[in-house]
Amino acid sequence: MIDALFGSKTRIKLLHLFLNNPGKSFYVREITRLIDEQINSVRRELSNMLNVGIIKSDEADNKLYYEVNQRYEHYVPLRAIFADEKTASEPLQHSVPSTLDWQSKLDDLGKIKIAVVAGVFIENSGSALDLLLVGNPAPAKLKSFIKTLEKQEGRELNYSVIPYDEFYYRLSIRDKFIAELLASKHTVLRDEENILK
Fold first, then answer.
1. What residue segments make up the domains of the chain, in order of their start?
2. How confident is the model at residue 3 (pLDDT cuts 50, 70, 90)?
3. Contact of 116 with 189, CB cutoff 8 Å
């Protein structure tokens, strides 16, 4: 039935392979062995999937490697269909996070003066960065916090932690990284000194 819906047995096998191995890359001959399909049909489907954006490619050691694009807009629903393990039924994306929900989590991390969410947390954000924390969080608590968020989202998150003085300097010189984040659709969860107003 899924074959009829998605049009190709090879495509189904590829989706199953990639969505069960986020963050892992494969080269063409390895893929053909893993899914037991002809190399020409694998190449054709990989090309189609690259054009759609569900996978991305990178060259290393004179081989072209492919992996799932976890930032693809339909990644979470496709993973819910094809992944063997079940992801969170309601990912955080598609709704702006409530500031109240995040305040106690941010307090637990330590000294966080500024917190901004974008990317996968904000629909139509377009930002490559999902979370910016400005301050000095406790490393162990930060690691646990990020791991929890990634589990809820069902994907890896791009986040950055910047000391307050460095952030203030980068903001004052209109640093490209900060400017791009603030130019994209985002939500400021915390701004203790109101410098982002």
1. 2-82, 99-191
2. low
3. yes
